[in-house]
# Entry
Amino acid sequence: MPNESTKAAPVAQVEVRSVYGNLTIYPINEQAKLFAKLTGKKTFSHADLCTIEALGFTVEEVATKKLAA
# Structure
């Protein structure tokens, strides 16, 4: 039986985008989208990310996929 201390923390994946010169943080996976739904917002603040981590989640930034121009 696995030990609780060796169990990996659930992951909330986010993507950081530049929108009109401002960095915005968008939820990517289902866990992150559920947090956004709870807050009633489409994007996260840094304080939101700290709260998600305080709840035992790991916040992981996903690289933006850019198409070649």
Summary: Strands lie at 11-19, 22-27, 58-61. The chain has a mean pLDDT of 89. DSSP finds two helices and three strands in the chain. The CA atoms of residues 10 and 57 lie 5 Å apart.
